[in-house]
Amino acid sequence: MAYRIALIQNGRLGEEIAAGVITPGHLLVLGSGDTVTVHVTEGGRAEKMWALEDALQGNTVTDNYASGDPVTLLHAVPGDVVNALIKAGETITIGEQLISAGDGTLKALDNVSSGTTVAEVVAIAVEANDLSASGAVATRSAVRVL
């Protein structure tokens, strides 16, 4: 189990208001009025901004932010390692290129949906994870930000 989202961090910490439910480990996008929401474009360009656990409130990686809550986040830089949420159903290997799955999670570049144009690889897997089993849910896995 992941206890922290930021494992190796050189990027800048920030705080924005949640515009919807956000889980620590989600890839985020900045919205209007200083809000953030999950990144919703499969394979799209991303600011490489991740929701962190709200440790100052005594919360862990399993405690979601509700809409309207201030979200502690990391503006990651290349080389940072984060426990990002990997999409259920994915099997990733170490060194695999990862893209936004379009729901705040990451997925393997090789599993891009038909007709999707990939604009950016977001991270490289530094930990293998098999979520292909029936009933698997999105799980945090260590990735290196590109």
Based on the model shown, name its key terms.
13 strands, 146 residues, 0% helix, mainly beta, single chain
Structural classification: mainly beta
Helical stretch count? 0
This entry's quaternary arrangement is single chain
List low-confidence stretches.
none
Major beta-sheet overview: 6 strands, antiparallel
Gyration radius over CA = 14 Å
Beta fraction: 35-45%
Assign a percent range to the helix content: under 10%
Q: Average pLDDT across residues?
A: 95
What shape does the CA trace take?
Answer: globular
In angstroms, what separates the terminal alpha carbons? 24 Å
Q: Could you tell me the number of beta strands?
A: 13
Sequence of secondary-structure elements? EEEEEEEEEEEEE
Overall number of domains: 2
The largest sheet has its strands arranged as 1-7-13-11-9-10
Structure description:
This protein has no helices and 13 strands. Helix content is 0%, strand content 37%. By secondary structure, the protein is mainly beta. The strands form 3 sheets. It has a 6-stranded antiparallel β-sheet, with no helix packed on it. A 5-stranded mixed beta barrel has the order 2-4-3-5-6. A hairpin with a 4-residue loop joins β3 (27-30) and β4. It has 2 domains: 6-77, no CATH class; 82-145, no CATH class.
